[in-house]
Amino acid sequence: MSIPILAVTDEADPRIHSATLRERLGHVALVVSCGDLPASYLEFIADALNRPVYYVLGNHAEELTRRCSGSESCKPSGAIDIGGKVIQDPATGLILAGIPGSPRYCEDEPAQFSEWEIGLMTAKMAPRLHLNRLRHGRAFDLLVSHAPPRDVNDRRDPAHRGFETLRGFLEKWRPAYNLHGHVHLYDRSQPYQQRFADTDVINVFPYRVLELELGHASSHEAAAASS
Questions:
Q1: I need a surface site. Which of 27, 54, 132, 139 has the fewest CB within 10 A?
Q2: What DSSP assignment string belongs to 141-173?
Q3: Can you give the residue ranges of every domain in the chain?
Q4: Could you tell me the pTM of the whole model?
């Protein structure tokens, strides 16, 4: 089963923030945001496409810059925050997990984390992931993260390093896909995708329309589900 999705991250793109968006991309089944996008941008996409929008916070947490009243921050209306969660899209059956933010490299940003904090976040997902393996033969299909795994699509400068913890997370649970942002690729000839373990790790900056294949558990998952 092939699921068409729109993935966005890091910069609002006029090709997406457009009156013709529904005409061009009305066929997508859902939208994922890998972070650092204004609440108003995600709300526009949700309204224009009338599809579920799943997102994680970026390290600058642009999603929280809109104010509800006074100084209180509002999450994007009509979008679903999956940071630290495992959910299943009811229409497609796609199982998603979310990891927000980036490794900590300064003290002034709201969504930067230590490796220990990400390890705790992934550990809290484990019961649901084990249950998914028993029910569905796979823990999950798609990891939506802001930062990539360490040494996979990342950079060597402190601000754009990936999470070491995500390497172990992907090796253990073997999802088919990890979509991320954080690393800005302005040169479209630069490589944006790598294979790590059983996972296609894809940088979607600033957006990509993808066809995700659902329903094929890896041999690792199949063995885990039958054990």
A1: 27
A2: SEEEESS-BTTSS--SSGGG--BHHHHHHHHHH
A3: 2-226
A4: 0.92
User: Residue 64 phi/psi, 5° resolution?
Assistant: -105, 15
Give yes or no for a contact between 25 and 15, defined as CB atoms under 8 angstroms apart: no
What does the pLDDT read at residue 129?
98
Q: How many angstroms separate the Cα of 79 from the Cα of each of 40, 54, 127, 203, 227?
A: 11, 6, 25, 21, 37
Query: Residue 81 is inside which H or E element, if any?
Result: strand 80-81
Q: What is the CATH number of domain 2-226?
A: 3.60.21
CA distance 29 to 135: 23
- Tokens (6 digits) for 39: 């609440």
Helices (H), 38-162: 39-49, 115-136
Q: Which helix (H) or strand (E) holds 22?
A: helix 21-25
CA distance 89 to 4: 13
Tracing tokens 């294979």 back to the chain, one arrives at: 195
Question: Which residues are bridge partners to 208 per DSSP?
Answer: 7
- The whole-angstrom separation of Cα 192 and Cα 125 is 27
Answer yes or no: are the C-beta atoms of 211 and 6 closer than 8 Å: no
Q: Distance between CA atoms of 177 and 145, rounded to whole angstroms?
A: 11
Taking 70 as the pLDDT cut, the residues of the chain under it are 69-71, 215-227
